[in-house]
Specification:
about 425 residues; mainly alpha; 3-stranded antiparallel beta sheet; 18 helices; binds s-citryldethia Coenzyme A
């Protein structure tokens, strides 16, 4: 019996088929079912893709049971402690940590592309002042391709490279512009002599009327948060970017699709929802009431920032962010009762049988909002921050996919459970559906 295969016996016909099993470098093997339909005339059925590997990738590895996260093999804990966001973006895109010269050149090129076309700035005037920043970001990023017609031939490696860098370079400028528009303040241009996070903070918080000094603590913790949010294998928004890319759509449209997918409260929108939930709970005394609601099958309420499709142990990012919360609140000498509430909520939830048996732990979104709040970033900008950082992972996956000679349009099938064939009914013979 060949070792690396799965034997399937179709009891309807007695037919036996061997499917190859692929082993990766790390993690679970994958059964190659590409010939299933041609061999057995049926599909697999896996809503939400719980047991489905959609691709091969070399970028990020997650061990959900052990709470392990590696970017190109490097543990997230080491990158969080020793690296910078732009160095991690380089690592995700090119697969290796840059030399000093490579990082310097990458930094300089990112800075050179950090401005947006002046005409693009007018797009923001079309948004009402209270438009959600994510609505602005989806629209503006999706329109970027209108400005780069001459370098959109994605069959050309250089066009792919420059598009990826442009996206990485312009996201902070666009994110800051979304914020400035929402508060009715003038947009601030990027400065080529500032680092990636420093530049973003300056565009967010400086005003023409007076000089602005970036707080090094703020820049450092922003680097940390961006590193932690940079990539996470085939999550919903990255899978959306890959799905859109499989049709040959331009990279700006594909990243805009990823931003849209990230916005959902089950995904990147959870960080904003966590702060709202903590504010609704308001007092430690009300935690049991909300825990009970989270456990109640008849109550749609979920403990936001808890649970994960892959992590059935602590999300290593949540642990790092929780520790950073302590430091940041101390260094910025700001107390936040919501942080104390979050710590108590985590403690109570993790002692509760429901959360223990269902292996529901705090995820990356549970504590991140506490830090963003301490940095004076408004709640409705939290998912924009997530999108800014995740652009590094999105473009890395986009480039990886575009370089794969085997990639083809993603076109899943379905299990049809609708009505059988029936004839058209003339309108006078129809009955109201009731
Ligand atoms: C991110 O995929 C990624 O990698 C995403 C991400 C990334 O970096 O890209 O890590 C970022 O999106 C983190 C997740 C942020 N979302 C939230 O915090 C929203 C709250 N969490 C959930 O809604 C939920 O846990 C998900 C969406 C994160 C995961 O959903 P799954 O894997 O489909 O799990 P499920 O909904 O089937 O839940 C399994 C059980 C259910 O109970 P039963 O039907 O089995 O009885 O656990 C329960 C759920 O009711 N459950 C929760 C819960 N999460 C799951 N119950 C209460 N509160 C919760 N938060």
């Amino acid at each position: 019996m060949p070792q690396n295969t799965l034997t399937v016996i179709d009891n309807r016909t007695g037919k036996t088929v061997e499917f190859p099993i692929h082993n990766g470098t790390l993690g679970e093997p994958a059964i190659d079912i590409a010939t299933l339909y041609s061999e057995l005339g049926c599909f697999t059925y896996d809503p939400g893709f719980v047991s489905t590997a959609s691709c091969k990738s070399e970028i990020t590895y997650i061990d959900g049971d052990a709470g392990i996260l590696l970017y190109r093999g490097y543990p997230i804990e080491q990158l969080a402690e020793k690296s910078s966001f732009l160095e991690v973006a380089y690592l995700l895109i090119y697969g290796a940590l840059p030399t000093k010269d490579e990082l310097h050149g990458f930094n300089a090129e990112i800075n050179r592309h950090s401005m947006i076309h002046e005409a693009l700035r007018n797009f923001f005037n079309g948004f009402h002042y209270d438009a959600h920043p994510m609505a602005m970001m989806v629209g503006v990023v999706g329109s970027l391709s209108a400005f780069y017609h001459s370098e959109l031939n994605i069959k050309k490696k250089e066009h792919r490279r420059i598009s990826a860098l442009r996206l990485l370079a312009k996201m902070p400028t666009i994110a800051a512009a979304c914020y400035k528009h929402s508060v009715g303040m003038p947009f601030i241009y990027p400065h080529n002599d500032l680092g990636y996070c420093e530049n973003f903070l300056n565009m967010m918080f400086s005003v023409p009327a007076q000089p602005y000094e970036v707080n090094p603590v703020t820049a450092r913790v922003l680097n940390l948060l961006f590193i932690l949010h940079a990539d996470h294998e085939q999550n919903a928004s990255t899978s959306t970017v890959r799905m859109a890319s499989s049709t040959g759509a331009n990279p700006y449209a594909c990243i805009a699709a990823g931003i849209a997918a990230l916005w959902g409260p089950s995904h990147g929108g959870a960080n904003e929802a966590v702060l709202k939930m903590l504010a609704d709970i308001g007092d430690v005394k009300r935690i049991p009431e909300y825990i009970a609601r989270a456990k109640d099958k008849n109550d749609p309420f979920r403990l936001m920032g808890f649970g994960h499709r892959v992590y059935k142990n602590f999300d290593p990012r949540a642990t790092i962010i929780r520790n950073a919360c302590h430091e940041v609140l101390q260094e910025l000498s700001c107390q936040d009762p919501l942080f104390d509430l979050a710590l108590e909520l985590e403690k109570i939830a993790l002692e509760d049988e429901y959360f223990i048996t269902k292996k529901l732990y705090p995820n990356v979104d549970f504590y991140s909002g506490i830090i963003y709040k301490a940095l004076n970033i408004p709640n409705n900008m939290f998912t924009v921050m997530f999108a800014l950082a995740r652009t590094a992972g999105w473009v890395a996956h986009w480039l990886e996919m575009k370089a794969d000679p085997l990639q083809r349009i993603a076109r899943p099938r379905q299990l049809y459970v609708g009505l059988d064939k029936r004839d058209y009914i003339p309108i006078e013979q129809r009955r109201a559906q009731g």
